[in-house]
Structures are given as structure tokens and as C-alpha cells.
Amino acid sequence: MSFGVLPNTVVNMASSSRAQVLSLYRMLLRESTKFPSYNYRTYALRRVKDGFRENIAVDNPKALDVLLNQARESLAVIKRQVAIGQYYATQKTVVEGQRNRNV
Q: Which residues contact 92 (CB under 8 A, 6 or more apart)?
């Protein structure tokens, strides 16, 4: 039996899962910035960042798959909430108004 292919497969799996994680992280951040409400937007961004920081050391492939599936479900929820939030007009908060004036 030859295991010469195994190390390359493990490296490819690790790099592909890393690419998947980074891609999913970027999608979550990008979608979270679309919330029309400042409070929801900052909360979603904070939760995404904290969630990924909390699980940065996960090496177990099964645990990683579970976390990736949870993140995909969260992305779907964020997309739905953003779509619903865009139907209703919200007023800009004082913080948002100040930020836009300095630009």
C-alpha cells in the first residue's frame, strides 16, 4: 500500500477549507454591512468577527464542517434580514450622520 498521495491530499484539503472559510468570512462581512440599521449592522459585524476569532484554532475536519454549515445558515439569515430591512425606511442615527459628514 502506498501513502505517497496522502500528504498532498491533506494539504489540498487544508488549503481548500481555508479558502472556504475565508470566502465565507468575507461574504458574511460584506452582507452584514448591507443592514440599513446602524445597530443591526454593527451587531452583525461584531458577531461575525467574534465567532470566527473564537473558532480560529479548530483543526478537526468534522468540527470545521459543522461550523461552516452554521456559518452558511447564518449567512442565509443575514441575507433574509437585510432584504426585509430594506423594505422599511429607517432614520440615520447621530453616529451615522457624523461619519458621513467627515467623508
A: 38, 100
**Residue 86 near residue 36 (C-beta atoms within 8 A):** yes
- Identify residue 103 by its one-letter amino acid code: V
Cα–Cα dist 35/93, whole Å: 13
pTM of the predicted model as reported, rounded to 2 decimal places = 0.75
Q: Which residue do the cell numbers 426585509 mark?
A: 84
Question: What tens digit of pLDDT does each residue of 23-69 get?
Answer: 999 999 999 999 999 999 999 999 999 999 999 998 898 999 999 99
The answer to whether the beta carbons of residues 47 and 95 sit under 8 Å apart is no
Buried b (16+ CB within 10 A) or exposed e, 90-101: eeeeeeeeeeee
Query: What's the grid cell of residue 16?
Result: 481548500
